[in-house]
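Reminder to self: tokens first, then the designed residues, so the page reads top to bottom the way the pipeline ran.
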């Protein structure tokens, strides 16, 4: 086949978590300035298969032996100077392995999981042209979120328990299956949710060509990075089935407190990787990290710190325990 690292120009830096950082070759082809800060990352699995992430322009691609090249992988190879004839030859060579891999690797049978469709509370879709919505838009902005990137709903004219809340719809298969209300005046409880057993927030975000799924605890954490949220510090059986249906590696990022760290042991038993970046004492979760560092640097730090090494995880846990 081909050695992707030898095709990538410029210097390369290997990280402790197995990623190789390079100047991303995709950026200037996608209307961005050429990358000079090594924000492209490539990681191998099983010695042959690899995934590529650009943490500048967001471009992703990968290679799995036995599978046809994706359109993004072909684009990457073309950007690296490989002509159509060679790309076609490598693609055919990969497909020759398909039958053998079908024999050696078990087929993942997806479980059919359904949630009942429900109605949302009476509310207004957030609108920047409505002066009453400004306080809600400002709150989302403080949390590093763009109010146009999700169908947030608000109740600006409500009183008592329904006042001062942002409603975040829960979707599954593009149907409304629940919601959570976040009260921006910090009353207690801060969140009230209508949630069906086993629901995994952000499942609809996941794209077929994504190379991994990042699992977090909170809804705002998931919205910050297009991940999946457990909405607690435990993983239930239906959520496990949903993640298995995605058929890709899972990286769990627990909240950086004693309660969140309880998630690590179960996640390791399930074969997931854990990522506990050293974001500083003032950062408790992924959303805090996005507010402090930005989305792309946060994603890069999650990828670089993903591990299934119990020793590395224990060291990170001790760091958090000493802080709390």
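Designed residues (324 positions):
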């Amino acid at each position: 086949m081909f050695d992707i690292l030898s095709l990538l120009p410029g210097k390369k830096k290997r990280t402790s978590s197995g990623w190789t950082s390079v100047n991303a070759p995709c950026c200037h082809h996608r209307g961005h300035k050429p990358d000079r800060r090594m924000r492209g990352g490539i990681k191998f699995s099983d010695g042959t298969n690899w995934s590529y992430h650009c943490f500048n322009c967001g471009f992703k691609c990968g290679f799995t032996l036995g599978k046809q090249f994706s359109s993004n992988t072909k684009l990457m190879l073309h950007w690296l100077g490989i002509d159509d004839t060679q790309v076609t030859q490598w693609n055919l060579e990969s497909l020759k392995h398909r039958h053998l891999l079908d024999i050696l690797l078990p087929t993942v049978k997806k479980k059919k999981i359904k949630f009942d469709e429900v109605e949302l509370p009476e509310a207004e879709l957030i609108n920047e042209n409505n002066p009453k919505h400004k306080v809600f838009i400002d709150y989302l902005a403080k949390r590093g979120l763009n109010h146009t990137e999700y169908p947030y709903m608000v109740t600006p004219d409500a009183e008592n328990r329904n006042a001062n809340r942002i409603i975040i719809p829960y979707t599954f298969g593009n149907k409304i299956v629940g919601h959570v209300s976040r009260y921006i005046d910090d009353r207690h409880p801060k969140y009230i949710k209508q949630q069906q057993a086993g629901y995994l927030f952000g499942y609809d975000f996941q794209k077929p060509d994504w190379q991994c799924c990042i699992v977090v605890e909170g809804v705002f954490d998931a919205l910050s990075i297009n991940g999946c949220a457990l909405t607690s510090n435990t993983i239930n059986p239906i959520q496990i089935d949903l993640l298995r249906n995605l058929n890709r590696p899972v990286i769990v990022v627990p909240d950086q407190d004693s309660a969140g760290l309880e998630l690590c042991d179960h996640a390791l038993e399930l074969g997931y990787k854990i990522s506990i970046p050293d974001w500083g004492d003032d950062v408790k979760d992924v959303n805090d990290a996005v507010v402090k560092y930005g989305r792309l640097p946060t994603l890069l730090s999650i990828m670089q710190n993903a591990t299934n090494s119990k020793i590395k995880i224990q060291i990170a846990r001790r760091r958090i325990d000493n802080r709390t």
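The mean pLDDT is 89.
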